Amino acid sequence: MQTIETERLILRPFKEGDAADLFAYLRAPTAPCFFSLKLADLAEAETEVRKRALDEGRLAICLKATGQVIGDLFGGGDDDDEEDKTTSVGWNLNPQFGGQGYAFEATKAFVDHLFQVKGFRRLYAYVEDHNKSSQRLCEKLGMRREGVFVEFVSFANDDAGNPIYENTMQYALLRREWAAQRPLATSARG
To answer: Taking a C-beta distance cutoff of 8 angstroms, is the pair 38, 32 a contact?
Structure first.
């Protein structure tokens, strides 16, 4: 995927040298959906960076001023439904950089890219019912909540080893909905 630039960020493919920054937020993921991505050490982070560098649907979120990786975005990769032009999207931001608008800035640019450049018709995101910040982000992006999957998936077990099932919401946005919410000057181009 090509590099995307915003006011404060650069969204680009992962590359060598990103391991320490990736490890900073994946050594102890805060969202249960990322528990399976937990990295044990820097060597594991280097392996993960090499894997992500080959993934067409994965971008590093970098501060423009320093180049530091502060999170990642995913969607629009090779495993998406090409026939229906539909893709799942997601984001993971280092909690150290939360509350500063970076997630919205990055995700908005990514959504614009997926609709305008990649030609997707429909984007959707899964969000656990307790992840209020991601729910707000979906809504701020203009996504609508389509439903709730009760006890949909488990990312962790309780002390007895039993799965803890999460209620998961699905949000979605159609290209025509996205185009309708854009300013008139830019919607004439898309």
So the answer is: no
